[in-house]
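Case study.
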Amino acid sequence: MILLALKDLKLFITDIKAVLLTFILPIILVTLFTIGFGGISGSRKSNPIKLLVSDQDSTEITQNIITKLDSLKELDIEQLPLVKAKKTIKEGKRMAVLTFYKGYSDSIKNGGQVPMELFYDESREAEIGLLQQALMSNLMGMVGQQKIKKNIFNLIDKKNANLSPALLNKIHKQVDEQLADFQSKDKNPVTQGMDLKMTKLFADEEPNWALIQAVAGVSVMMLLFSVAAMGATLLEEKERGTLKRLLYSPINPLKILFGKMLYTFLIALAKLSILFIFTWLVFNLEIFSNVTALIILLIATAFACTSFGIFLAAICKSRKQVESLSTIIILVMSAIGGSMMPFFLMPPFMQKMAMFSVNYWSIQGIYDIFYRHLPTINILEKSLVLFLIGIVISLISINRYKKNILKVA
Amino acid sequence: MIKIKNLHKSYGDIQALKGIDIEIKEGEFYGLLGPNGAGKTTTINILSTILKPDDGEIFINGFNLKTDAKQCKNYIGIVPQEIALYDDLTAYDNLFFWGKLYKINNKLLSKKINELLNLMGLEERKNHKIKTFSGGMKRRINIACALLHSPKIILMDEPTVGVDPQSRNLIFEALRKLHQQGTTIIYTTHYMEEVEKLCNKISIIDYGKIIAQGSINELKKLSKISESIIIYSDSELKEKKEIISNSIKIPFDIYDNNIKFYTNNINTDLSKIINEINTIGINITNIELKKTNLETLFLELTGRKLRD
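After joint prediction, the assembly is written out as follows.
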């Protein structure tokens, strides 16, 4: 029994692919997800949430609140007019805008309902949850404090009209300090009744962001797996001897590579098209809302994925190597690119890394079409990046192909 | 037709070819004989343009292989050692695909495919997938793929490895037909029987060098070892040495139970020896003929067997 177990262990160790998949891949993925969900060092350091603020009241009170919000470590404030802010959110560049309407300061003074509203991108609901928490615990405290403070000052000034302005200022200061102390101990009493109106920006169009995330994330990841397998057929040709026979013929050796790329590209494009047609038929995804942009994006995605598949074949020496390497690279790329976890959950350095993945540009492009309903020109930008990724990887693949694959003799 | 001059090729420190010179005339059936690792496949790979030589020149039908590779490729059909076919395609589809690479028009190609399937005895299997074929049948399709563009020269790199006798004979028949039609064939193998059966000119290659070149008869003449006839007997032979010597004027040695006659012409000397031995009264129990062949010649030239 021990002998058999030892034999199997020996066989297992000699199988690099099995070793990689068994030990290294889970380690890589656990590391990525831990970093992604901010679980490093046991204490979570949250990234500042980038919040747009539109101050239509433009008073000292609103500006003070904005300054205080900006000083919070969990928020990064940028002021924009409401129309522009909404456009920025719809383009997916920011997730929410906090709006202080005209009369905000007056309503604080008068003790009425404060006119403020948070417009947000529903697709980033989880992130909005964090924002809402941050606002409830800070903004409401500030608003409530301002409101109470104003009422107390009004009362003191009214009851002590005979006191000198200097003395009244001193009293105001002392009240201010005590209120700050009171706020730090218990915020609840001052936040009661201070509701923040939450409005989804995409409410009219009602796009199903969960469906979009599922289609975008899974389609690109699965496509990468299949193009890797298709690219590996180049190595299969080498192992089978048919590549040698192709090289005997008068065709240019590069045409062999381009032929393989064309085949992979066509299958990839067909696969993506069928997937989107399926989601249209079964889940009512409006694929005809901007069909031109969708076709351009699918072509760009298929091309970028194809080049990746060919690249794997060009740098590996055997199909087994392709299988091992592709599993690792695709899972890592999918993890950082947004196929496996929401992009906003990642720390900034991972968000930057995501831009080197095919997944990111493709997923964002799909969001632009189906969720943000951006015009074709905006899709072109992401498609162009995908084409550039494809071209660069293809050029490297051609170089490797000449050096590795063509050495058949 | 083919001129190979001073061909050198190294893989790192290993010198695969150390200055090969071969001249092959149009219509010759040329054998490249040598053990595994001798340099046969390297020579074929250089001729097929997929490998560049370190030094030397090759001319095919007047074209320099280095500068006019594309023209040269059209003259050559190559049968690789591997069965380079697509298992999931039919025999016809495989042949069609490989033929189209030479830009043959569909009608002509279809006609050629049927001709070749007939030549290889596989017409009835044309629509069957390659994966259903036996090893020998696959070998035959493998050869047919190299003939689609009617090449003037066919390079065959050990085309009968792992082939059953029936397929082997069919392949030999097909090659003889092609040779009769004027096709120049270069055939590499380590089976000397195949070379003796098929080739009219041979180069023996070993450790990257040509160690002998010529027709089979010319090569046999190179051998210092003569052919021999061994007569086995249950009679007492040593007592009759003088009588044998006087009656049979052929050099011989007597051992315990046999007499070994050294001759250069077995066919004429055999009957003469048998008659004289019977006349002397020696009872013959067995006769063994030892002919010089390429195997013995190779052993003599290199000190090792062809299949070592």
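Observations recorded in class. The radius of gyration of chain B is 24 Å. Chain B has two domains: 2-221, 226-291. We will return to this complex in the next lecture.
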